[in-house]
Specification:
By secondary structure, the protein is of the alpha/beta class. The chain folds into 3 domains: 8-69 and 95-177, Rossmann fold (3-Layer(aba) Sandwich), CATH 3.40.50; 182-360, Argininosuccinate synthetase, chain A, domain 2, CATH 3.90.1260.10; 369-401. Helix content is 39%, strand content 19%. The strands form 3 sheets. It has a 5-stranded parallel sheet, with helices on both faces. A 5-stranded antiparallel sheet has the order 10-9-8-13-14. Strand 8 (222-229) and strand 9 (232-236) form a beta hairpin. Helix 4 packs across helix 5 and helix 7 (243-256) crosses helix 8. The radius of gyration is 25 Å and the shape is elongated.
């Protein structure tokens, strides 16, 4: 593309090798001003060094924002109200972060008068779709630059050569082939590629960074209580916490008990299968607890309807349609279901498992008077006979018609 078509671009910038090369490449290829945006999503690494790197590369407008509370409050918690699992297992840790980054990039683009945005996602993965669907949903006329789909830097070796040629600082551990690539935020950390590409090979212990192995976890179970209000977790063991602080606490509890590891072969939106290794310690606990409190507060019909729409909802998030009207419609339905999801869940954490062992709610639908095996005064067991015969009527008629 010829220079001059883009005047100013907002780049999602981590300060790592890829996005540092992208920054310089944008300056050279498009002869444009680059604005950087770095999000603190709770990835566990300092984000301020990205400012220094951007300054050294001549960037004048640098945005570094702590978005941890917004991430959990406005993205993670709404998703967990739905009990969302992609393909029955994946808690969508990477997927749910992308619309937040896209939102901030567009906000900054409007603020600084940029006419383009850029990201560092490759042309093989899901993230390019997630970023760009977010951009276009929020600003339909924005120009999107995806360097991995344009340049000829097709290998890590070429990236490093380009960085050295332009005196771009490279972390020492980036020289040579990394054993796998990672993506992290407060909800999870993922690993994929290289040593993990063969789905037959078990991931080695060094792949994991947020949890001990279940075998190495304590030999005694650890108990905790999570309090919910309208479907969102608000307290742990009686202490009220902000959304980000609560998820941080659950990550600590889950990590030391070996909870939240997942080895998954998933179907990418772009059509291929990929193998990922995920750690979601706090999210795994939260998922179990939320289903636990719903079990006594949701009507059967509402609960079953939620379970029916959940795969569709999870797929929308995985595929990048967070800002799509159908996701927002489903969210309204889900949020309506959570109006009475209040109460407390007690869990036992032990060697990789998070098990619900108690639940209570001021709005509980559970009636001991009705389910007791002892004598009761509220349920006439003879009523079941007519109920069964009415439900069996079509079966009996169908059978009789065949003879």
């Amino acid at each position: 593309m010829s220079s001059g078509k883009v005047k100013k671009v907002v780049l999602a910038y981590s300060g790592g090798l890829d996005t540092s090369v992208i920054l310089k490449w944008l300056q050279e290829t498009y002869q444009c001003e680059v604005v950087t945006f770095t999000a603190d999503l709770g990835q566990g690494e300092e984000v301020e060094p990205a400012r220094k790197k951007a300054e050294l590369m001549g960037v004048k407008e640098i945005f570094i924002e702590d978005v941890r509370e917004e991430f959990v409050r406005d993205f993670v918690f709404p998703m967990f109200r739905a009990n969302a699992l992609y393909e029955g297992q994946y808690l969508l840790g990477t997927s749910i972060a992308r619309p937040l980054i896209a939102k901030h990039q567009i906000d900054i683009a409007i603020k600084v008068g940029a006419d383009a945005v850029a990201h560092g996602a490759t042309g093989k993965g899901n993230d390019q779709v997630r970023f760009e669907l977010g951009y276009y949903a929020l600003k339909p006329d924005i120009k999107v630059i995806a360097p991995w789909r344009e340049w000829d830097l097709t290998s890590r070796t070429k990236l490093i050569e380009y960085a050295e040629k332009h005196q771009i600082q490279i972390a020492k551990d980036k020289r040579g082939e990394a054993p796998f690539s990672t993506d992290a935020n407060l909800l999870h950390i993922s690993a994929e590629g290289k040593a993990l590409e063969d789905p037959w090979n078990e991931p080695e212990e060094f792949v994991f960074s947020r949890s001990v192995s279940p075998e190495a976890a304590p030999d005694r179970p650890e108990y905790l209580e999570i309090e919910f209000a309208r479907g969102d977790a608000v307290a742990v063991d009686g202490e009220r916490l902000s959304p980000a602080a609560l998820l941080t606490r659950l990550n600590e509890l889950g990590g030391r008990n070996g909870i939240g590891r997942l080895d998954l072969v998933e179907n990418r939106f772009v059509g291929m299968k990929s193998r990922g290794v995920y750690e979601t310690p706090g999210g795994t606990i939260l998922y179990a607890a939320h289903r636990g409190i719903e079990s006594i507060t949701l009507d059967r019909g509402a609960a079953h309807l939620k379970d029916e729409i959940m795969p569709r909802y999870a797929e929308l998030i995985y595929n990048g349609f967070w800002f799509a009207p159908e996701r927002e419609m489903l969210q309204a339905l889900i949020d309506k279901s959570q109006e009475n999801v209040d109460g407390t869940v007690r869990l036992k954490l032990y060697k990789g498992s998070a098990t619900v062992v108690g639940r209570k709610s001021p709005k509980s639908l559970y009636s001991l008077a009705h389910v007791t095996f002892e004598e009761d005064q509220v349920y006439n067991q003879r009523d079941a006979e007519g109920f069964i015969k009415l439900n069996a009527l079509r079966l009996r008629l169908a059978k009789a018609a065949r003879f």
